[in-house]
Task: structure prediction
Amino acid sequence: MRLNLKSLAISGLVITCILGTSACSDDKSSGPINPVSSNQSAIELSSQDVMFLQMMIPHHEQAVFMSDLAQTQADSDAIKKLAKAISITQKLERSKMREWLTEAGEPLSSDGHSMGAEGMLSEQEILTLRAANGKAFDKLFVKGMTAHHKGAIEMARDEVSSGQNEKVKAFAVAVIALQGAEIVTLKAIQKLHDLKSGS
Result:
């Protein structure tokens, strides 16, 4: 499990670079890297780009909520470590997505489609997760986060195929890679700790 988590840390750094933060700059005095020219104050987004970002923000917010619960309610240290990595990365991603929408003059959410995000847990599933502890929580977390990530990957694939903004599409590609790797780790944890539903 150590190797898998190390790979996720590397993937997280790749996400950081794509989002344009100072972690990828050798010149610490230059500030954050921004793929957009300093003379260009706005970002151009297509309707697909906007929809993807507006749907992905609440999707990330739910993943962060689930991951933060794991810090106090999970039994497995591996789940706690993975959940912490998910929380850190998705908070960073959420901030960048909000920034892109704001720069484009677009609202951060849309009632028309934000609730249609793939893989989102239902209100009842969230309540059940909040009430669980120990191994029972671990089972629900692995199942729920796996479905959650699969939904994010589907949305990201739609953006890659139909989006217009190259930065947003590059971000979507990174989401597919990182969350795919996290699914592999979740499945390994599930097998290692016998967390199959009904076990």
In short: Residues 25-39 have pLDDT under 50 and may be disordered. The domain at 2-22+44-192 is CATH 1.20.1260.10 (Ferritin). Helices lie at 2-19, 47-73, 77-103, 123-131, 134-162, 166-192. The chain has one domain: 2-22+44-192.
